[in-house]
Amino acid sequence: MIRGIFVLALLLSLPSQAKTIVNYYKCVSERGTVYSQFPCAGNSTQHTITNIDPKSGTSSEQHYKALNKIEKQQIIRNLKNELRAKKHQAAILTRERDQDTRDQQLRVNRIMDDNERKETLDDIKRQLKAINKDYHKQARKLNKQIAQLEKKLKRYE
Fold first, then answer.
1. Is residue 76 domain-shared with residue 127, that is, in the same domain?
2. Sheet of strand 19-29: strand arrangement
3. In this entry, which stretches build a coiled coil (predicted)?
4. Which of 19, 9, 27 shows the shortest CA–CA distance to 57?
């Protein structure tokens, strides 16, 4: 009789609870794995199962908070990836400028007569000026984009 009342009380309380937590033990031995409600040996590990009733109504506010949190994490991750890509692009730009400058400076070391050397030096100066002008233009643009991304990232974090 008492057991019947206990079971009835248990069954009536289940629909009102949206969340059920059950602890169980997992014991691994040479014969296999045993799951139990009680510890079976010294090597048993305790695990927890949380069961949530899908029919229970969760507030939509919590749903939106969870979505907003996930969206915020995605935005932060995307901004960090974009920022890393821009910094990598700036490093590549610097490397290319250094390579072009080195190529122009190697032209000076060639053996040539004085007239040709003077013309080559003038051409090298023009080329270096154009290389640096182009580099600074692209570097300013990249640095501006990096600053904007860092500002956005700081706002989200």
1. yes
2. 32-36, 19-29, 45-52
3. 69-96, 121-152
4. 19
Q: Are residues 66 and 50 in the same domain?
A: no
Q: Is the dihedral of CA 77, 79, 80, 81 positive or negative?
A: positive
Contact criterion met (CB below 8 Å) for 79 and 149: yes
pLDDT surpassing 80 at residue 20 = no
- Of 90, 104, 105, residue with least CA distance to 139: 90
Predicted confidence (pLDDT) per residue in 60-92, tens digit = 666 667 778 888 889 999 999 999 999 999 999
Q: How many domains does the chain have?
A: 2
Q: Is residue 82 part of a domain?
A: yes
Does residue 142 share a domain with residue 66? yes
Look-up: residue for tokens 């048993």? Answer: 44
Question: Angle of helix 114-156 relative to helix 60-108, nearest 10 degrees?
Answer: 170
For residues 9 and 12, give the distance between their C-alpha atoms in angstroms, rounded to a whole number. Answer: 5
pLDDT above 70 covers what percent of the chain?
A: 73
Kindly state whether residue 132 falls inside one of the protein's structural domains: yes
